[in-house]
Fold this protein.
Amino acid sequence: MDEMTHKVSLTEIFLTFAKIGITGFGGGMAIVALVERICVKEKEWLSSEEFMHGLAFGQILGPFSLNVCTFTGHHLRGIRGGVTAAVAFILPSFLLVSLLSWLYFTFHKLPQLQAALKGTNPVVIGLIVVVAIDMGRKQIRGANGCLMALAAFAATVLIKLNAAWVLLAAALWSLCLTLYRRSHC
Amino acid sequence: MGSMLTLAWIYFRIGLIFVGGGYVLIPLLKHIMVDQYHWLTMRQFLDGLALSQLTPGPLAMLATFTGFRAGGFAGGMVATLFIFLPCVLLMLVIGRNYHRLKNTDIINSTLDGLLPAVVGLVAAAAWNLGVSSLSGLKDILILVVGFAIFKWTKVSPMIVILGAGLAGLAFQ
């Protein structure tokens, strides 16, 4: 794994994340799904576990879509890789929003664009579902795992609990379980 | 130049308390942009919100829009740079210490233990998005087709998403 990670060039990192930044419509989880598909499945830059650790850390501060990109880039080429991935991911959106802002403040209306991009919505949701299924198959083992996944789902959907709180609760639960097992082995 | 420094400082502070995904930014930015500095009217703020949702970037791209309003292209750039600075730095620090963090037994098994919750969150995101944006049989049909393509073929997601965008445009 280590030998391979040194071979990924900054240019390739830039191009990959710029591509994700251009096509990742749907934001948030859609980006995460794209990064998982491309960096874990296709290019095998990092393992599914490492990716999910990055995703969990990424919930702490800021948008986790950007954080996952930074984490993956750093994993490949250190600080320069992380910064490259972050810049490449944000750049297309930045240029697009700048252009749209300029159009908006100049002409004050942009009706078609919103309608056009609505078409991508269902497909993006389909992608997220596939990622959830694939991740679940790999990561959920046993009753405890099933319960935790269901609880996280329910807490988010039913009581609209913030993802950061859900993860904090899961981390505490998991920590207690680890300590408990350790003291009983 | 002084106003650029002010902008940088405002967005950097927002970046520091930007916890738990994008949605916390909405009340935060609204307060600063609309109520405090009067850079935007409420209407413009909401338009900017819709507009930043159109891009692949996070909701935080709203920073670019509001920054643009406050200081043109340079303002948008400064706003974008500084709102993301804290979280990029944090991720670099975490990435740098990842192997140490990972090899610490307690952290490692705690992290592994919470992975099912991450799966639940991803599934919940799909659910919430579906509830808020799917309308009618056509959308559900597209979702099923998209699901099948992603699940059983190796077609690049880029092509599928761009194709869906074009189809959406054509059938408008």
Remarks:
- Chain A has two domains: 2-139, 141-185.
- Residues 141-185 of chain A form one domain.
- The mean pLDDT of chain A is 84.
- DSSP finds nine helices and no strands in chain A.
